[in-house]
Design goal:
This protein has 101 residues and is of the alpha+beta class. It has 3 helices and 6 strands; from the N terminus they run βαββαβββα.
């Protein structure tokens, strides 16, 4: 699924992390039309407008955000927590563009 190339998963977030703080931090990589933060798993999934933005976000692996060193990785649906997988799948299916004949 090509749209997954625009998505990253961010883990090891601080317990009090807010989605707005996460968006602010990764905003320098590019536009983020979708983000979902799961405070229980202390993880988030971000979908960028462009693949190049997601690649830039991947380069921020081991960055410090609000006193936590986070891990940034490509999305792997096989290992993605269900609490992140469901909202991501819904976002991708709603925003899937169908070519017009």
């Amino acid at each position: 699924m090509d749209s997954l190339k625009r998505a990253v998963v961010v883990s090891k977030l601080s317990a009090g992390m807010k989605e707005s703080s996460l968006r602010d931090f990764f905003d320098l990589c590019g536009t983020i039309p979708f983000a979902h933060l799961d405070s229980d798993t202390r993880s988030a999934v971000l979908v960028f407008e462009k693949e190049s933005s997601a690649r830039m976000a991947l380069s921020m692996n081991n960055a410090a955000i609000e006193y936590s060193v986070v891990q940034v990785a490509p999305v792997d649906l096989a290992t993605l927590a269900p609490s992140l997988k469901a909202p991501l799948s819904e976002h991708l299916s709603i925003n899937r563009t169908t070519p017009t004949p």
